[in-house]
Each structure stands twice: as structure tokens, then as C-alpha cells.
Design a protein that fits this description.
The chain has 2 domains: 212 residues, HUPs (Rossmann fold, 3-Layer(aba) Sandwich), CATH 3.40.50.620; 80 residues, Tyrosyl-Transfer RNA Synthetase (Orthogonal Bundle), CATH 1.10.240. The protein is built from 14 helices and 5 strands. A 3-stranded parallel sheet has the order 1-2-3. It binds adenosine-5'-diphosphate and tryptophan (TRP). The site of tryptophan (TRP) has 14 residues, from strand 1 and helix 8.
């Protein structure tokens, strides 16, 4: 049976970009594959979160995963730092990752631009840790959003290089996955680019309806359709989000109004906020009941840790033997 794995960093709160780009695909796969989902708390350390916040971040994201529909019995749901085998594989993979290829990664180049004061080695080797996350369970499919494509390409490079160097078949070459469709990029409400935590332009999975309405109503638009001109980016972004949360008839209705030049952006936004609210309400309600249940969260994390370590140990034994480690 093929193995599926995905993860999200433990910073901030999950937004609908995380959900529609990665989490929802994972939830749809969890009963048909061998599935792993984890909280990337080690990855979050690149930005030095305050120790007082660190555990709370992990806990909040765990509760949000569960609210989004991950079934901890069907899949293995765990915290990255609970599985030290990942960090050992990270070290071994670092020996076959070249600094040149890491320096050329788009995400690394973006960080140099965005946070020039903190270009640590953890940022440079971020893709190596991500490859270790994926390869430690010998995963085949990785449901992620479009921004992660390059990381997956590097993961395949490392897997292939390891297998060639050590003349073995330990690692499959994993692919970014979205049911045979294009990977998704959910845009933000600010007119351009992707919805993201650092961009601060998102709607969260757990957000009250009033705040959602306010954000959507103040989303960037343009001064109206111009016959013969292509749709502007801010409007096309609103349509993209609508198509992800609303019924196809609703999308068609507004597309027709746009084509006829009679569309009122205020109506489009009202509809969009109601559809987002309808879509998120069950998730928010589940979150509110899970979040305070420390016993349940503790059990989920402990179960996930045991299952994840068992799988990780088996891979690491193969890896260590391929590299030439032997006991005396
Ligand atoms: P963020 O980019 O908000 O900081 P992460 O980097 O932790 O979030 O992303 C976790 C997952 O969510 C990844 O699989 C990523 O591809 C996906 N993701 C994040 N933002 C988007 C988006 N706007 N559209 C589609 N997928 C996204
Ligand atoms: N790099 C991913 C992100 O920023 C998070 C992540 C870490 C991940 N390790 C992973 C995603 C392994 C998929 C598989 O979105």
C-alpha cells in the first residue's frame, strides 16, 4: 500500500490556504492509504519562537488538524520533535545535500530578502529536514500546495542520490499530490500573491463569522469589468476562492454577471463571506470542543508518537545498514 505524508509548521493558526492546499486532500486520502500527518515544530524554530509560546503553538495546531477532520486512528498524527529518528536522518541527508542546490531554492532566496537579519543554517537546510520528514516513512505521495513543489523536487534528488551512492533501493521518489490535478495556490484577499501566515492576508480555519465578513468585505477589488479586457488579479482571486468554497451554480451566476458587466462586487463579497462561513462553521465548532480537552490531545499525541517511531525506526535501520553502520 502506498504511503502518504504531509505536515504543516507550528506557527500561527491554520488558514484556508493550508486547508484547501494540503489538509483537505490529506483528509480525503486517510482511509485509503498508509497515512502520516505531522506538526513541523522543528521547522518552526528557524524564526526563534518564544519558549513560552512553543508548546501552545503545537497544541493549537494539533487541535486544528483534528477539527479539520484528521482521524488519529486511521492515520498517524504526530509531532515532529517526538520522533528523533527524523533528526538523525536529517544529519545523514545533510552529507549528500550540496550547499549550491540549497542556496538556489526559491524559498531560501525569499527569506534572504524578507529577513536578512536571520539567515541561519537551519533555513538553508530547511529542504533537507523536509526531505527527512518525507523519506523517514518512505512516502510516495505528499499532498501540499503549489509553493512546495520545489522542495519535493529536491526530496527526489536526495532520495535518488542516496540510493545511487549506497547502491540500494531504500527510498521511493515521492511526488507532490492533488488527485491528478494541478497543485493549488489559494490567493490572499489583498489582491496579489498567495494566502499565507507571514503575509497576514488570510482567513483562519477558526475565525468568527463577524471577522470573516469584515475581511472579505474589505478585500481589494477594481473599478469594475472593462469589456474586452481580461479579469484583473484581485477579482480573479475572489473567484478562485469562491470556486473552492461555493456551489458551482453560485460561481456560474457571478461569472455570468461579470461577463454581462452587471456584477456588483459588494454582492459577490457578501456571497463569498457566507459561503466561507458555511464551509468553516463545522470545523470551528469541532475545534472549540477539542481544544480544551487536554486528555484527548495527550492521548492523540502519545498514540501518534508510538506509531510514527515504529515506522521511522524500520527505515532508519535500513538507512544505517546501507551507510555501513554495524554494531560491535
Ligand atoms: P504558510 O505558507 O501559511 O506559512 P505553511 O508554509 O506551514 O503555511 O504551509 C503548510 C501547507 O499549506 C503546505 O503544504 C503549503 O503548500 C500549504 N499552503 C500554504 N499556503 C497555501 C496557499 N495559499 N495555497 C495553497 N496551499 C497553501
Ligand atoms: N515546508 C512545509 C511548509 O512550509 C511544511 C513541511 C515540513 C512539510 N515538512 C514537510 C510538508 C513534509 C510536507 C511534507 O509548508
Amino acid at each position: 500500500m502506498e504511503t502518504v505524508l504531509s505536515g504543516i509548521r507550528s506557527t500561527g493558526n491554520l488558514h484556508i490556504g493550508n486547508y484547501l492546499g494540503a489538509l483537505r486532500n490529506f483528509v480525503r486520502m486517510q482511509h485509503d492509504y498508509r497515512c502520516f500527518f505531522f506538526i513541523a515544530d522543528l521547522h518552526s524554530l528557524t524564526t526563534h519562537p518564544h519558549p513560552d509560546d512553543f508548546h501552545g503553538n503545537v497544541r493549537r495546531i494539533l487541535a486544528q488538524y483534528l477539527a479539520a477532520g484528521i482521524d488519529p486512528e486511521a492515520s498517524t498524527l504526530y509531532v515532529q520533535s517526538d520522533v528523533p529518528e527524523i533528526t538523525e536522518l536529517y544529519l545523514l541527508l545533510n552529507m549528500i545535500a550540496y550547499t549550491g542546490e540549497l542556496e538556489r531554492t526559491t524559498t531560501f532566496k525569499d527569506k534572504i530578502r524578507l529577513q536578512p537579519g536571520n539567515i541561519n543554517a537551519g533555513l538553508l537546510t530547511y529542504p533537507v529536514l523536509m526531505a527527512a520528514d518525507i523519506l523517514i516513512h518512505r512516502s510516495h505521495k505528499v499532498p501540499v500546495g503549489k509553493d512546495q513543489e520545489q522542495h519535493l523536487e529536491l526530496t527526489r534528488v536526495f532520495a535518488r542520490r542516496f540510493n545511487n551512492l549506497y547502491q540500494c533501493e531504500v527510498f521511493p521518489e515521492p511526488v507532490a499530490f492533488n488527485f491528478g490535478e494541478e497543485l493549488i495556490k489559494v490567493p490572499g484577499l489583498d489582491g496579489s500573491g498567495k494566502m499565507g501566515k507571514s503575509e497576514g492576508n488570510g482567513i483562519y480555519l477558526v475565525e468568527d463569522p463577524k471577522s470573516i465578513r469584515k475581511k472579505v468585505m474589505s478585500a481589494v477589488t477594481d473599478s469594475g469589468p472593462v469589456p474586452g479586457q481580461p479579469m484583473s488579479e484581485p477579482i480573479s482571486n475572489l473567484f478562485t476562492i469562491l470556486s473552492l468554497v461555493a456551489a458551482p451554480e453560485t460561481v456560474r451566476f457571478f461569472e455570468e454577471q461579470y461577463a454581462a458587466g452587471t456584477i456588483r462586487y459588494g454582492d459577490l463579497k457578501k456571497q463569498l463571506s457566507e459561503d466561507i462561513i458555511g464551509f468553516l462553521t463545522p470545523i470551528r465548532e469541532r475545534y472549540l470542543s477539542i481544544e480544551s480537552d487536554s486528555d484527548y490531545l495527550r492521548k492523540v499525541a502519545a498514540l501518534g508518537k508510538d506509531k510514527a517511531r515504529e515506522s521511522a525506526r524500520a527505515t532508519l535501520d535500513l538507512v544505517r545498514s546501507a551507510v555501513g553502520f554495524k554494531s560491535f
